[in-house]
Amino acid sequence: MTVPNTPAGPGAEPMPAADPYAVDPYLQKPPRERQPLLPELRIGALLTVAGVLLGVVVGLLWLWLAPRVMLVATSDAIRYVDPEGEQRAGADGVFALLGLGAGLLSALVAFLLTRQRGGGIAVAAGLGLGGLAGSLVAWQLGVRLGPSTDVIANAKAAGKGVEFSSAIDLGARGALLVWPMAALVLLLILSAALGKREEDPPPYWAGTPWPAPEGGSVPPVPEHPAPQGDEAAAPDAEAPAADREQGDGVPGTDGPDQSLRPEHGPVPPA
Questions:
Q1: DSSP character for 73?
Q2: Contact at 8 Å (CB) between 139 and 176?
Q3: pTM surpassing 0.70?
Q4: Cα gap 183→99, rounded to integer Å
Q5: Dist CA 94 CA 87 (whole Å)
Q6: Which partner for 175 in 17, 57, 82, 96 could form a disulfide, CB atoms 3.0-4.6 Å apart?
Q7: Residue 89 to residue 68: CA distance in whole angstroms
Q8: 3-state SS assignment for residue 80
């Protein structure tokens, strides 16, 4: 049940009743502006291209730092110089460490450049695609620039009893995912800790004051100070006698209710 508002003065029309189920406009979140699609695609494409270029650097570093598996040609076969060596696992580990460093570096740079705009799905997608593309480029570049995969031709070129290096390759293909995963995890941590913050909505009890009616102002409510001392116990001497008599009487009678007073006894029925 709604109660219409009291008019501001005589002759004024009453204001329409307010909807009790309406949401206060002060508590409603303003609509978020949608980012244009073209700038988002541009940011994602730039991050992907940057990942491919960084993959070239990672591939060259992997070719330089990865341990090599050494072979030697004998009179009847081509054998490992160190049969129990872990050079192949070392090459995979070096690739994973380089991918981890490249992912952390790319995520840090992308976060610093896009922090003011609040990041976005384009930044995360660009880092993920760029990291995966950079890992593939680094892997293929290291394989193609390294020693040839034709072991027999390499043994003939080296000669009998001369050690030569086998082709560098990535045994654990899961190392290709280290770069994009590291970039996305670091981007998530930086965005949660240092990212752009949105203004928190006001609490539910905070609201706007009741608007004043048109054509007038809301009359002030008089303030009555609380009685203190003897004034609180003393009856209101200025109240009309009729009000005091009617206050303890029975409706429809002019005098007080005699049935409520035990000294006069009960009232006989009519």
A1: E
A2: yes
A3: no
A4: 10
A5: 10
A6: 96
A7: 10
A8: strand
How confident is the model over 64-79, as pLDDT tens digits? Answer: 999 888 888 887 788 8
**In the structure, how many helices (H) and strands (E) does the chain have?**
7, 3
- The model's pLDDT over 1-14, given as tens digits with 9 standing for 90+, comes to 444 555 555 555 55
Phi-psi region of 266 (alpha: psi -120 to 50; beta: other; left: phi over 0): beta
Residue 252 has pLDDT above 50, yes or no: no
Of the candidates 142, 140, 135, 115, which has an alpha carbon nearest to the alpha carbon of residue 180? 135
Query: How far apart are alpha carbons 99 and 65 in whole angstroms?
Result: 13
Tokens 């730039």 belong to 46
Which letter, b or e, does each residue of 55-93 get, where b requires 16 or more Cβ atoms within 10 Å of its Cβ?
beebbebbbeebbbbebbbeeeeeeeeeeeeebbeebbe
